[in-house]
CheW protein
Amino acid sequence: MRGAERSHDVVVARCGGLRLGVPLEAVHKVVAAPLLTPLPDAPARVAGLANLHGAPLVVLDISGNALPAGRPRLEARLMVVETAQRRCGLLCDRVEGTLRLPEDAWRALDDLVPGAGYLAGSPDGEDLVVLRDPDGWLSEGDEQHLREALERHRAGGAGEAGA
């Protein structure tokens, strides 16, 4: 057994051209991407709302593709993730599975782009994996903007997501 080498398990997904690693402990489940309902005045990274077992779920698209709300591509997946603010969904082109990434393979990207997370070489020989803390997917300003959009949605009595 090796010394004190630390590693982290991540769920790897393709989001646009990005190969993203999400900490396994933050991932609740992965489901087929459902029909999305638009959320007017939400931040650009919010793709819409989904109906997940009768409850509205904020769905994020961090790929930069900003797809319109509606029916995602057939092969698209929704990774349901716990953040400090809420449970949310991450729209993914596909989910590849889990990887164990040794901590010494991580390289901080914050020196280049604040809040960008880490870059890790992948032991499976595939592309590099960008590791992002789900709590950083939206800025503080975007979080406030999202809270306001959700409040307007609730107050307006708009139809349930996916209805």
